[in-house]
Design brief:
The structure holds two protein chains of two kinds. Chain A is an all-beta fold. Chain A has strands at 5-7, 10-13, 19-24, 31-37, 44-50, 53-56, 65-68, 75-79, 88-95, 106-107, 111-115. In chain A, strands 2, 4, 5, 6, 9, 10 and 11 form a seven-stranded mixed sheet that branches. A four-stranded antiparallel sheet of chain A has the order 1-3-8-7, with no helix packed on it. By secondary structure, chain B is mainly β. Chain B contains no helices and nine strands. In chain B, strands 1-9-8-3-4 form a five-stranded mixed sheet, with no helix packed on it. In chain B, a hairpin with a 5-residue loop joins strand 6 and strand 7 (70-75). Chain B is globular, with a radius of gyration of 13 Å. The chains are: A mainly beta, B mainly beta. The A-B interface holds A 4, 31, 33, 35, 41-45, 48, 56, 59, 91, 93, 98, 101-102, 104-110 and B 32, 41-46, 49, 85, 87, 93, 96-103.
Chain lengths: 116, 110
């Protein structure tokens, strides 16, 4: 079946530009996560949605980062006024429901953002 | 979540077993032990998880020490496709985010 998809797969932005990264989770998955992965590092948590509600945004690095999931399915991560330090792979993951004891997270392939 | 410690890298020959260690001396009673792996240029994928007892699935086995302060991911016959970064992650039963750390980069040679 279809997994988590992300678009675009690659994005090059000039410093100061705004970017929008899209995530299509697995159909029926209630929980959605965004992670940021710098080169040579493990992914780091950014934010978490349960349906359309953003329950945790503690990992967003600055107020330039904004995420939404208005209808509880597709999510968009927006970065305003991009900086070079924003260059990373942005990973989206979804899971069926985190309210059970355990739910595996399914990850998309990521969007590689390069800020020049 | 409690911290885990893994070797930076390990090497294995194809078709031999691989034992990937993870130390988690500050694990709490409600922490589950999860393993994910990340193949080159892909997102992470779930491998296995456990709480106290050893676990087996089609991908791997998880051996958990009796005091739960360490665990070992076992790949029974490594293939070239198993070359990846393996992450050992502790997550509280009530938690949701995954704290990946740096993981172990596994190299599999023919």
């Amino acid at each position: 079946g279809a997994g988590v998809s992300q678009s675009p797969r690659y994005k090059v932005a000039k410093r100061g530009q705004d970017v929008a990264l899209r995530c299509d989770p697995i159909s029926g998955h209630v929980s959605l996560f965004w992670y940021q992965q710098a080169l040579g590092q493990g992914p780091e948590f950014l934010t978490y949605f349960q349906n359309e509600a953003q329950l945790d945004k503690s990992g967003l690095p600055s107020d330039r980062f904004f995420a939404e999931r208005p209808e509880g399915s597709v999510s968009t991560l927006k970065i305003q006024r991009t900086q070079q330090e924003d260059s990373a792979v942005y990973l989206c993951a979804s899971s069926l429901n985190t309210r059970t004891v355990y739910n595996e997270q399914f990850f998309g392939p990521g969007t590689r953002l390069t800020v020049l | 979540d409690a911290k885990t410690t893994q070797p930076n890298s390990m090497e294995s020959n194809e078709e031999e077993p691989v034992h990937l260690p993870c130390n988690h001396s500050t694990i709490s009673g409600t922490d589950y032990i999860h393993w994910y792996r990340q193949l080159p240029s892909q997102g992470p994928e779930y491998v296995i998880h456990g709480l106290t007892s050893n676990v087996n699935n089609r991908m791997a086995s998880l051996a958990i020490a009796e005091d739960r302060k360490s665990s070992t991911l076992i790949l029974h016959r490594a293939t070239l496709r198993d070359a990846a970064v393996y992450y050992c992650i502790l997550r509280d039963v009530a938690g949701y985010a995954l704290n990946f750390g740096k993981g172990t980069s596994l190299l599999v040679t023919p």
